[in-house]
Protein backbone atom coordinates (compact mmCIF):
# COMPACT_ATOMS: atom_id res chain seq x y z
CA UNK A 1 0.00 0.00 0.00
CA UNK A 2 1.53 3.35 -0.97
CA UNK A 3 2.07 5.87 1.79
CA UNK A 4 -0.02 9.06 1.68
CA UNK A 5 1.56 12.02 -0.12
CA UNK A 6 0.98 14.29 2.84
CA UNK A 7 -0.82 14.48 6.19
CA UNK A 8 -3.07 17.53 6.43
CA UNK A 9 -4.46 18.68 9.78
CA UNK A 10 -7.69 20.65 9.59
CA UNK A 11 -9.11 22.27 12.70
CA UNK A 12 -12.20 24.25 13.66
CA UNK A 13 -14.13 24.96 16.84
CA UNK A 14 -16.84 22.62 15.53
CA UNK A 15 -18.15 21.11 12.31
CA UNK A 16 -18.11 24.31 10.22
CA UNK A 17 -14.56 23.60 9.05
CA UNK A 18 -15.85 20.46 7.35
CA UNK A 19 -16.94 22.79 4.52
CA UNK A 20 -13.21 23.45 4.00
CA UNK A 21 -12.37 19.73 4.20
CA UNK A 22 -15.11 19.04 1.64
CA UNK A 23 -13.37 21.41 -0.79
CA UNK A 24 -9.90 19.96 -0.01
CA UNK A 25 -10.79 16.29 -0.65
CA UNK A 26 -11.06 16.48 -4.46
CA UNK A 27 -8.18 18.99 -4.76
CA UNK A 28 -5.55 16.98 -2.87
CA UNK A 29 -6.19 13.30 -3.54
CA UNK A 30 -4.33 10.51 -1.80
CA UNK A 31 -3.66 12.59 1.30
CA UNK A 32 -4.19 11.63 4.93
CA UNK A 33 -6.63 14.08 6.51
CA UNK A 34 -6.96 14.65 10.26
CA UNK A 35 -9.93 16.78 11.25
CA UNK A 36 -10.35 18.14 14.78
CA UNK A 37 -13.51 19.87 16.00
CA UNK A 38 -12.92 21.50 19.40
CA UNK A 39 -16.60 21.04 20.22
CA UNK A 40 -16.17 21.11 24.02
CA UNK A 41 -15.16 24.74 23.82
CA UNK A 42 -17.25 26.02 20.92
CA UNK A 43 -18.36 28.55 19.93
CA UNK A 44 -15.13 30.53 19.66
CA UNK A 45 -17.11 33.41 18.08
CA UNK A 46 -18.13 35.04 21.37
CA UNK A 47 -14.86 34.61 23.30
CA UNK A 48 -11.79 36.80 23.87
CA UNK A 49 -8.51 36.75 21.93
CA UNK A 50 -6.52 35.23 24.82
CA UNK A 51 -9.00 32.41 25.30
CA UNK A 52 -9.25 31.64 21.58
CA UNK A 53 -5.45 31.65 21.16
CA UNK A 54 -5.08 29.20 24.06
CA UNK A 55 -7.73 26.89 22.56
CA UNK A 56 -6.27 27.11 19.04
CA UNK A 57 -2.73 26.29 20.23
CA UNK A 58 -3.84 23.17 22.07
CA UNK A 59 -5.79 22.04 18.99
CA UNK A 60 -2.86 22.74 16.65
CA UNK A 61 -0.42 20.88 18.89
CA UNK A 62 -2.71 17.87 19.05
CA UNK A 63 -2.83 17.61 15.24
CA UNK A 64 0.96 18.05 15.05
CA UNK A 65 1.38 15.15 17.49
CA UNK A 66 -0.86 13.04 15.23
CA UNK A 67 1.51 13.67 12.35
CA UNK A 68 0.09 16.72 10.56
CA UNK A 69 2.59 18.24 8.11
CA UNK A 70 0.43 21.22 7.22
CA UNK A 71 -2.24 22.84 9.43
CA UNK A 72 -5.38 24.38 7.95
CA UNK A 73 -7.17 26.67 10.40
CA UNK A 74 -10.66 26.14 8.99
CA UNK A 75 -12.20 28.60 11.44
CA UNK A 76 -12.51 32.30 10.78
CA UNK A 77 -12.45 33.28 14.45
CA UNK A 78 -9.32 31.24 15.19
CA UNK A 79 -7.67 32.60 12.03
CA UNK A 80 -8.60 36.18 12.99
CA UNK A 81 -7.37 35.89 16.56
CA UNK A 82 -4.76 33.14 16.69
CA UNK A 83 -3.09 32.65 13.28
CA UNK A 84 0.10 34.50 14.26
CA UNK A 85 0.36 32.53 17.52
CA UNK A 86 -0.09 29.26 15.61
CA UNK A 87 2.50 30.19 12.97
CA UNK A 88 4.94 31.17 15.69
CA UNK A 89 4.34 28.07 17.79
CA UNK A 90 4.14 25.27 15.20
CA UNK A 91 7.05 24.00 13.06
CA UNK A 92 4.78 23.31 10.04
CA UNK A 93 3.07 25.56 7.46
CA UNK A 94 -0.19 27.04 8.76
CA UNK A 95 -2.93 28.33 6.42
CA UNK A 96 -5.90 30.29 7.69
CA UNK A 97 -9.12 31.17 5.88
CA UNK A 98 -8.87 34.96 5.83
CA UNK A 99 -5.97 35.70 3.46
CA UNK A 100 -7.27 33.24 0.80
CA UNK A 101 -10.75 34.79 1.13
CA UNK A 102 -9.30 38.29 0.65
CA UNK A 103 -7.26 37.14 -2.37
CA UNK A 104 -10.39 35.63 -3.94
CA UNK A 105 -12.21 38.93 -3.33
CA UNK A 106 -9.39 40.73 -5.17
CA UNK A 107 -9.97 38.49 -8.19
CA UNK A 108 -13.72 39.28 -8.24
CA UNK A 109 -15.06 42.31 -10.14
CA UNK A 110 -15.50 45.53 -8.10
CA UNK A 111 -13.61 46.75 -5.07
CA UNK A 112 -16.08 47.00 -2.16
CA UNK A 113 -16.48 43.77 -0.21
CA UNK A 114 -19.25 43.05 2.30
CA UNK A 115 -18.06 40.46 4.83
CA UNK A 116 -20.56 38.42 6.85
CA UNK A 117 -19.00 36.84 9.97
CA UNK A 118 -19.37 36.12 13.69
CA UNK A 119 -19.07 38.92 16.27
CA UNK A 120 -15.53 37.96 17.30
CA UNK A 121 -14.29 37.85 13.70
CA UNK A 122 -15.81 41.27 12.98
CA UNK A 123 -14.45 42.74 16.23
CA UNK A 124 -10.98 41.53 15.34
CA UNK A 125 -11.02 43.65 12.16
CA UNK A 126 -8.92 40.94 10.47
CA UNK A 127 -10.94 40.90 7.23
CA UNK A 128 -10.82 44.69 6.95
CA UNK A 129 -7.03 44.59 7.30
CA UNK A 130 -6.66 41.72 4.81
CA UNK A 131 -8.96 43.37 2.25
CA UNK A 132 -7.40 46.83 2.64
CA UNK A 133 -3.98 45.24 2.04
CA UNK A 134 -5.43 44.22 -1.36
CA UNK A 135 -6.63 47.82 -2.00
CA UNK A 136 -10.22 46.79 -1.43
CA UNK A 137 -12.85 48.52 0.72
CA UNK A 138 -14.43 46.35 3.42
CA UNK A 139 -17.72 46.53 5.31
CA UNK A 140 -18.02 43.87 8.00
CA UNK A 141 -21.37 42.72 9.35
CA UNK A 142 -21.73 40.51 12.44
CA UNK A 143 -24.49 37.91 12.04
CA UNK A 144 -24.68 36.01 15.36
CA UNK A 145 -27.90 34.17 14.55
CA UNK A 146 -26.69 32.44 11.39
CA UNK A 147 -24.57 29.75 13.09
CA UNK A 148 -27.39 28.58 15.39
CA UNK A 149 -29.86 28.60 12.47
CA UNK A 150 -27.50 26.41 10.41
CA UNK A 151 -26.87 24.09 13.37
CA UNK A 152 -30.63 23.82 13.98
CA UNK A 153 -30.94 22.77 10.32
CA UNK A 154 -33.46 25.51 9.51
CA UNK A 155 -32.37 25.53 5.87
CA UNK A 156 -34.48 23.13 3.94
CA UNK A 157 -36.46 20.83 6.24
CA UNK A 158 -39.81 22.65 6.06
CA UNK A 159 -40.78 25.83 4.29
CA UNK A 160 -41.69 27.71 7.48
CA UNK A 161 -38.34 27.19 9.20
CA UNK A 162 -36.52 28.15 6.00
CA UNK A 163 -38.65 31.33 5.92
CA UNK A 164 -37.30 32.29 9.34
CA UNK A 165 -33.72 31.86 8.13
CA UNK A 166 -34.55 33.84 4.99
CA UNK A 167 -36.09 36.64 7.09
CA UNK A 168 -33.04 36.74 9.42
CA UNK A 169 -30.80 36.94 6.35
CA UNK A 170 -33.00 39.69 4.88
CA UNK A 171 -32.73 41.74 8.12
CA UNK A 172 -28.94 41.36 8.28
CA UNK A 173 -28.50 42.04 4.54
CA UNK A 174 -30.84 45.07 4.62
CA UNK A 175 -28.76 46.54 7.48
CA UNK A 176 -25.64 45.84 5.41
CA UNK A 177 -27.20 47.39 2.28
CA UNK A 178 -27.96 50.63 4.18
CA UNK A 179 -24.34 50.72 5.31
CA UNK A 180 -22.72 49.59 2.06
CA UNK A 181 -25.17 50.18 -0.83
CA UNK A 182 -22.39 50.05 -3.42
CA UNK A 183 -20.73 46.81 -2.30
CA UNK A 184 -19.85 44.56 -5.22
CA UNK A 185 -19.13 41.23 -3.58
CA UNK A 186 -20.09 39.32 -0.46
CA UNK A 187 -17.48 37.26 1.36
CA UNK A 188 -18.78 34.37 3.49
CA UNK A 189 -16.54 34.94 6.53
CA UNK A 190 -17.62 31.91 8.54
CA UNK A 191 -17.27 28.24 7.63
CA UNK A 192 -20.93 27.63 8.50
CA UNK A 193 -22.13 30.03 5.86
CA UNK A 194 -21.48 27.98 2.68
CA UNK A 195 -24.59 25.99 3.69
CA UNK A 196 -26.58 29.24 3.44
CA UNK A 197 -25.26 30.15 -0.01
CA UNK A 198 -28.41 29.24 -2.04
CA UNK A 199 -30.62 31.12 0.44
CA UNK A 200 -28.29 34.16 0.43
CA UNK A 201 -28.33 34.22 -3.37
CA UNK A 202 -32.14 34.07 -3.40
CA UNK A 203 -32.39 36.82 -0.74
CA UNK A 204 -30.00 39.14 -2.59
CA UNK A 205 -32.09 38.68 -5.74
CA UNK A 206 -35.30 39.82 -4.01
CA UNK A 207 -33.47 42.80 -2.50
CA UNK A 208 -32.02 44.06 -5.77
CA UNK A 209 -28.59 43.91 -4.13
CA UNK A 210 -26.39 42.22 -6.74
CA UNK A 211 -23.32 40.87 -4.96
CA UNK A 212 -20.96 38.19 -6.18
CA UNK A 213 -20.61 35.59 -3.43
CA UNK A 214 -17.09 34.57 -2.44
CA UNK A 215 -16.80 31.34 -0.47
CA UNK A 216 -13.72 31.48 1.76
CA UNK A 217 -13.89 27.70 2.37
CA UNK A 218 -13.37 27.12 -1.35
CA UNK A 219 -10.70 29.84 -1.60
CA UNK A 220 -8.80 28.33 1.33
CA UNK A 221 -8.80 24.82 -0.13
CA UNK A 222 -7.44 26.20 -3.41
CA UNK A 223 -4.72 28.15 -1.58
CA UNK A 224 -3.60 25.03 0.32
CA UNK A 225 -3.65 22.89 -2.82
CA UNK A 226 -1.41 25.39 -4.61
CA UNK A 227 1.30 25.04 -1.93
CA UNK A 228 1.34 21.25 -2.04
CA UNK A 229 2.99 19.33 -4.86
CA UNK A 230 0.73 16.42 -5.75
CA UNK A 231 1.52 13.64 -8.16
CA UNK A 232 -1.42 12.16 -10.09
CA UNK A 233 -2.61 9.30 -7.89
CA UNK A 234 -5.35 6.76 -7.78
CA UNK A 235 -4.78 6.35 -4.07
CA UNK A 236 -7.85 6.95 -1.91
CA UNK A 237 -7.53 9.64 0.74
CA UNK A 238 -8.01 8.64 4.36
CA UNK A 239 -9.70 10.85 6.92
CA UNK A 240 -9.78 10.61 10.73
CA UNK A 241 -12.15 12.73 12.78
CA UNK A 242 -11.58 13.92 16.36
CA UNK A 243 -13.85 15.98 18.60
CA UNK A 244 -13.48 17.22 22.18
CA UNK A 245 -17.16 16.68 23.02
CA UNK A 246 -20.58 15.61 21.72
CA UNK A 247 -19.50 12.87 19.33
CA UNK A 248 -23.12 12.06 18.55
CA UNK A 249 -23.92 15.66 17.56
CA UNK A 250 -20.70 15.85 15.54
CA UNK A 251 -21.62 12.73 13.64
CA UNK A 252 -25.17 13.92 12.99
CA UNK A 253 -24.41 17.53 12.00
CA UNK A 254 -21.04 16.84 10.44
CA UNK A 255 -22.42 14.90 7.50
CA UNK A 256 -24.51 17.96 6.59
CA UNK A 257 -21.33 20.05 6.35
CA UNK A 258 -19.16 17.42 4.69
CA UNK A 259 -21.83 16.47 2.18
CA UNK A 260 -21.63 12.74 2.96
CA UNK A 261 -21.71 10.49 6.05
CA UNK A 262 -18.80 10.65 8.51
CA UNK A 263 -16.80 7.65 9.73
CA UNK A 264 -16.74 7.18 13.53
CA UNK A 265 -15.50 10.26 15.38
CA UNK A 266 -12.93 9.82 18.14
CA UNK A 267 -13.42 11.69 21.41
CA UNK A 268 -10.25 13.35 22.72
CA UNK A 269 -9.50 15.47 25.78
CA UNK A 270 -7.51 18.68 25.38
CA UNK A 271 -8.11 19.66 29.02
CA UNK A 272 -10.11 22.67 30.15
CA UNK B 1 -21.43 48.70 59.46
CA UNK B 2 -23.42 45.53 60.13
CA UNK B 3 -22.12 42.33 58.63
CA UNK B 4 -24.24 40.73 55.91
CA UNK B 5 -26.72 38.11 57.09
CA UNK B 6 -25.47 35.58 54.56
CA UNK B 7 -23.23 35.23 51.53
CA UNK B 8 -25.05 33.72 48.55
CA UNK B 9 -23.15 32.39 45.57
CA UNK B 10 -25.10 32.35 42.29
CA UNK B 11 -23.62 30.72 39.23
CA UNK B 12 -24.55 30.26 35.59
CA UNK B 13 -22.73 29.59 32.33
CA UNK B 14 -23.44 33.21 31.37
CA UNK B 15 -25.75 36.10 32.16
CA UNK B 16 -29.02 34.11 32.10
CA UNK B 17 -28.73 33.39 35.82
CA UNK B 18 -29.01 37.11 36.48
CA UNK B 19 -32.78 36.61 36.07
CA UNK B 20 -32.56 34.45 39.23
CA UNK B 21 -30.41 37.05 41.01
CA UNK B 22 -32.95 39.72 40.06
CA UNK B 23 -35.65 37.72 41.85
CA UNK B 24 -33.41 37.02 44.88
CA UNK B 25 -32.43 40.65 45.58
CA UNK B 26 -35.80 41.83 46.96
CA UNK B 27 -36.50 38.51 48.73
CA UNK B 28 -33.26 38.29 50.74
CA UNK B 29 -32.25 41.85 51.66
CA UNK B 30 -28.97 42.69 53.34
CA UNK B 31 -27.18 39.69 51.88
CA UNK B 32 -23.83 39.57 50.14
CA UNK B 33 -24.28 38.23 46.62
CA UNK B 34 -21.50 36.72 44.52
CA UNK B 35 -22.43 36.08 40.90
CA UNK B 36 -20.24 34.03 38.56
CA UNK B 37 -20.86 33.73 34.83
CA UNK B 38 -18.64 31.04 33.31
CA UNK B 39 -18.67 32.91 30.00
CA UNK B 40 -15.40 31.44 28.68
CA UNK B 41 -17.04 28.05 28.46
CA UNK B 42 -20.64 28.90 27.57
CA UNK B 43 -22.95 27.68 26.27
CA UNK B 44 -23.26 24.60 28.48
CA UNK B 45 -26.47 23.69 26.59
CA UNK B 46 -24.75 21.80 23.79
CA UNK B 47 -22.06 19.96 25.81
CA UNK B 48 -21.84 16.53 27.45
CA UNK B 49 -22.58 15.62 31.09
CA UNK B 50 -18.92 15.02 31.96
CA UNK B 51 -17.82 18.36 30.56
CA UNK B 52 -20.64 20.30 32.24
CA UNK B 53 -20.02 18.59 35.61
CA UNK B 54 -16.33 19.52 35.42
CA UNK B 55 -17.16 23.15 34.59
CA UNK B 56 -19.85 23.40 37.29
CA UNK B 57 -17.55 22.00 39.99
CA UNK B 58 -14.81 24.51 39.25
CA UNK B 59 -17.36 27.35 39.33
CA UNK B 60 -18.90 26.13 42.60
CA UNK B 61 -15.50 25.76 44.25
CA UNK B 62 -14.53 29.28 43.20
CA UNK B 63 -17.62 30.76 44.88
CA UNK B 64 -17.01 28.65 47.99
CA UNK B 65 -13.47 30.07 48.20
CA UNK B 66 -14.95 33.57 47.96
CA UNK B 67 -17.06 32.85 51.05
CA UNK B 68 -20.36 31.59 49.64
CA UNK B 69 -22.51 29.92 52.35
CA UNK B 70 -25.23 28.78 49.96
CA UNK B 71 -24.86 28.02 46.27
CA UNK B 72 -27.63 28.72 43.78
CA UNK B 73 -27.13 26.91 40.48
CA UNK B 74 -28.96 29.46 38.33
CA UNK B 75 -28.49 27.40 35.18
CA UNK B 76 -30.87 24.71 34.02
CA UNK B 77 -28.25 22.72 32.15
CA UNK B 78 -25.85 22.66 35.12
CA UNK B 79 -28.71 21.76 37.44
CA UNK B 80 -29.85 18.97 35.13
CA UNK B 81 -26.40 17.48 34.68
CA UNK B 82 -24.29 18.45 37.70
CA UNK B 83 -26.49 19.14 40.75
CA UNK B 84 -25.72 15.80 42.41
CA UNK B 85 -21.97 16.26 41.82
CA UNK B 86 -22.14 19.77 43.31
CA UNK B 87 -24.13 18.62 46.35
CA UNK B 88 -21.67 15.78 46.89
CA UNK B 89 -18.59 17.95 46.47
CA UNK B 90 -19.48 21.17 48.30
CA UNK B 91 -19.93 21.50 52.09
CA UNK B 92 -22.73 24.11 51.74
CA UNK B 93 -26.39 23.89 50.72
CA UNK B 94 -26.87 23.81 46.95
CA UNK B 95 -30.15 24.78 45.27
CA UNK B 96 -30.81 24.18 41.59
CA UNK B 97 -33.57 25.57 39.39
CA UNK B 98 -35.35 22.36 38.44
CA UNK B 99 -36.94 21.12 41.68
CA UNK B 100 -38.34 24.60 42.53
CA UNK B 101 -39.72 24.89 38.98
CA UNK B 102 -41.39 21.48 39.29
CA UNK B 103 -42.86 22.40 42.69
CA UNK B 104 -44.28 25.62 41.24
CA UNK B 105 -45.82 23.58 38.40
CA UNK B 106 -47.46 21.34 41.01
CA UNK B 107 -49.10 24.43 42.56
CA UNK B 108 -50.49 25.56 39.17
CA UNK B 109 -53.87 24.31 37.92
CA UNK B 110 -53.82 21.24 35.65
CA UNK B 111 -51.35 18.37 35.50
CA UNK B 112 -49.66 18.42 32.08
CA UNK B 113 -46.60 20.64 31.91
CA UNK B 114 -44.88 21.76 28.71
CA UNK B 115 -41.19 22.52 29.41
CA UNK B 116 -39.19 24.75 27.06
CA UNK B 117 -35.43 24.31 27.51
CA UNK B 118 -32.04 23.90 25.80
CA UNK B 119 -31.13 20.65 24.03
CA UNK B 120 -28.86 19.44 26.86
CA UNK B 121 -31.53 20.07 29.52
CA UNK B 122 -34.14 18.21 27.47
CA UNK B 123 -31.77 15.33 26.71
CA UNK B 124 -31.02 14.95 30.42
CA UNK B 125 -34.72 14.23 31.12
CA UNK B 126 -34.31 16.01 34.48
CA UNK B 127 -37.53 18.02 34.20
CA UNK B 128 -39.52 14.93 33.23
CA UNK B 129 -38.19 13.10 36.30
CA UNK B 130 -38.84 16.08 38.61
CA UNK B 131 -42.37 16.63 37.29
CA UNK B 132 -43.28 12.92 37.33
CA UNK B 133 -42.13 12.80 40.95
CA UNK B 134 -44.89 15.39 41.55
CA UNK B 135 -47.43 13.21 39.70
CA UNK B 136 -47.42 15.57 36.75
CA UNK B 137 -47.11 14.74 33.04
CA UNK B 138 -44.24 16.41 31.21
CA UNK B 139 -43.58 17.22 27.56
CA UNK B 140 -40.15 18.69 26.97
CA UNK B 141 -39.35 20.80 23.91
CA UNK B 142 -35.80 21.80 22.95
CA UNK B 143 -35.62 25.38 21.63
CA UNK B 144 -31.95 25.96 20.62
CA UNK B 145 -32.62 29.29 18.84
CA UNK B 146 -34.13 31.13 21.80
CA UNK B 147 -30.88 31.80 23.69
CA UNK B 148 -29.12 33.37 20.67
CA UNK B 149 -32.22 35.45 19.88
CA UNK B 150 -32.31 36.79 23.46
CA UNK B 151 -28.55 37.44 23.42
CA UNK B 152 -28.91 39.25 20.07
CA UNK B 153 -31.57 41.43 21.75
CA UNK B 154 -34.18 40.62 19.12
CA UNK B 155 -36.96 41.25 21.63
CA UNK B 156 -37.96 44.85 21.44
CA UNK B 157 -35.47 46.93 19.47
CA UNK B 158 -37.37 47.07 16.19
CA UNK B 159 -40.61 45.49 15.16
CA UNK B 160 -39.07 43.35 12.40
CA UNK B 161 -36.51 41.64 14.64
CA UNK B 162 -39.19 41.02 17.26
CA UNK B 163 -41.32 39.44 14.50
CA UNK B 164 -38.54 36.93 13.83
CA UNK B 165 -38.42 35.97 17.50
CA UNK B 166 -42.22 35.72 17.57
CA UNK B 167 -42.17 33.48 14.46
CA UNK B 168 -39.47 31.23 15.97
CA UNK B 169 -41.58 30.96 19.14
CA UNK B 170 -44.67 30.22 17.06
CA UNK B 171 -42.86 27.38 15.22
CA UNK B 172 -41.56 25.85 18.46
CA UNK B 173 -44.92 26.26 20.26
CA UNK B 174 -46.89 24.86 17.29
CA UNK B 175 -44.65 21.76 17.31
CA UNK B 176 -45.25 21.51 21.07
CA UNK B 177 -49.01 21.97 20.65
CA UNK B 178 -49.14 19.08 18.15
CA UNK B 179 -47.30 16.91 20.66
CA UNK B 180 -49.07 18.11 23.81
CA UNK B 181 -52.42 19.67 22.84
CA UNK B 182 -53.81 19.29 26.36
CA UNK B 183 -50.91 20.82 28.30
CA UNK B 184 -52.06 23.19 31.03
CA UNK B 185 -48.91 25.05 31.97
CA UNK B 186 -45.63 26.10 30.39
CA UNK B 187 -42.44 25.97 32.41
CA UNK B 188 -39.62 28.29 31.32
CA UNK B 189 -36.77 25.79 31.71
CA UNK B 190 -33.91 28.17 30.85
CA UNK B 191 -32.85 31.30 32.71
CA UNK B 192 -32.77 33.27 29.44
CA UNK B 193 -36.46 32.69 28.83
CA UNK B 194 -37.99 35.08 31.42
CA UNK B 195 -37.00 37.88 29.00
CA UNK B 196 -39.26 36.22 26.41
CA UNK B 197 -42.26 35.95 28.75
CA UNK B 198 -44.34 38.82 27.26
CA UNK B 199 -43.73 37.54 23.73
CA UNK B 200 -44.56 33.95 24.73
CA UNK B 201 -47.81 35.11 26.34
CA UNK B 202 -48.75 37.06 23.21
CA UNK B 203 -47.90 34.09 20.96
CA UNK B 204 -49.93 31.62 23.04
CA UNK B 205 -52.90 33.99 22.81
CA UNK B 206 -52.81 34.04 19.00
CA UNK B 207 -52.48 30.24 18.94
CA UNK B 208 -55.45 29.56 21.18
CA UNK B 209 -53.13 27.52 23.40
CA UNK B 210 -53.95 28.69 26.92
CA UNK B 211 -51.01 27.78 29.16
CA UNK B 212 -50.14 29.24 32.53
CA UNK B 213 -46.50 30.35 32.43
CA UNK B 214 -44.25 29.22 35.27
CA UNK B 215 -41.01 31.10 35.68
CA UNK B 216 -38.39 28.81 37.24
CA UNK B 217 -36.12 31.79 38.03
CA UNK B 218 -38.84 33.21 40.28
CA UNK B 219 -39.65 29.79 41.77
CA UNK B 220 -35.96 29.19 42.58
CA UNK B 221 -35.53 32.53 44.32
CA UNK B 222 -38.59 31.80 46.47
CA UNK B 223 -37.26 28.33 47.33
CA UNK B 224 -33.89 29.75 48.42
CA UNK B 225 -35.54 32.53 50.43
CA UNK B 226 -37.64 29.98 52.33
CA UNK B 227 -34.51 28.13 53.53
CA UNK B 228 -32.80 31.27 54.82
CA UNK B 229 -33.82 32.93 58.04
CA UNK B 230 -33.79 36.68 57.44
CA UNK B 231 -34.30 39.37 60.07
CA UNK B 232 -35.97 42.57 58.90
CA UNK B 233 -33.07 44.78 57.84
CA UNK B 234 -32.51 48.16 56.27
CA UNK B 235 -29.05 47.06 55.25
CA UNK B 236 -28.30 47.34 51.55
CA UNK B 237 -27.26 44.14 49.81
CA UNK B 238 -23.87 44.03 48.14
CA UNK B 239 -23.19 42.21 44.88
CA UNK B 240 -19.91 41.23 43.21
CA UNK B 241 -19.81 39.96 39.65
CA UNK B 242 -17.23 37.59 38.18
CA UNK B 243 -16.92 36.27 34.63
CA UNK B 244 -14.41 33.93 32.99
CA UNK B 245 -14.39 35.87 29.70
CA UNK B 246 -15.87 38.76 27.72
CA UNK B 247 -16.30 41.28 30.55
CA UNK B 248 -17.53 43.89 28.10
CA UNK B 249 -20.26 41.64 26.72
CA UNK B 250 -21.21 40.58 30.25
CA UNK B 251 -21.55 44.19 31.32
CA UNK B 252 -23.61 45.09 28.24
CA UNK B 253 -25.94 42.09 28.16
CA UNK B 254 -26.04 41.57 31.91
CA UNK B 255 -27.96 44.74 32.65
CA UNK B 256 -30.71 43.52 30.33
CA UNK B 257 -31.08 40.37 32.44
CA UNK B 258 -30.68 42.02 35.84
CA UNK B 259 -33.02 44.87 34.98
CA UNK B 260 -30.55 47.58 36.00
CA UNK B 261 -26.90 48.50 35.27
CA UNK B 262 -24.16 46.20 36.59
CA UNK B 263 -21.19 47.32 38.68
CA UNK B 264 -17.76 46.47 37.19
CA UNK B 265 -17.35 42.77 36.46
CA UNK B 266 -14.13 41.03 37.57
CA UNK B 267 -12.40 38.69 35.11
CA UNK B 268 -11.27 35.41 36.66
CA UNK B 269 -9.51 32.33 35.29
CA UNK B 270 -10.84 28.88 36.13
CA UNK B 271 -8.41 27.19 33.69
CA UNK B 272 -9.48 25.33 30.59
TrEMBL record, chains A, B:
GO process terms (BP): cell wall organization; peptidoglycan biosynthetic process; regulation of cell shape
Pathway: Cell wall biogenesis; peptidoglycan biosynthesis
Reactions the enzyme catalyzes: L-glutamate = D-glutamate
Enzyme Commission numbers on file: 5.1.1.3
Catalytic residues, chain numbering: 75, 190
Sequence positions that bind substrate: 12-13, 44-45, 76-77, 191-192
Molecular function terms from GO: glutamate racemase activity
Segments passing through the bilayer: none
Top-level EC class: isomerase
Listed InterPro entries: Asp/Glu/hydantoin_racemase, Asp/Glu_race, Asp/Glu_racemase_AS_1, Asp/Glu_racemase_AS_2, Glu_race
Pfam families, per database record: Asp_Glu_race
UniProt KW keywords: Cell shape, Cell wall biogenesis/degradation, Isomerase, Peptidoglycan synthesis
Lineage: superkingdom: Bacteria
Functional note: Provides the (R)-glutamate required for cell wall biosynthesis.
Protein family per UniProt: Belongs to the aspartate/glutamate racemases family.
NCBIfam families per record: glut_race (TIGR00067)
Listed PANTHER family: GLUTAMATE RACEMASE (PTHR21198:SF2)
Protein name: Glutamate racemase
Gene label: murI
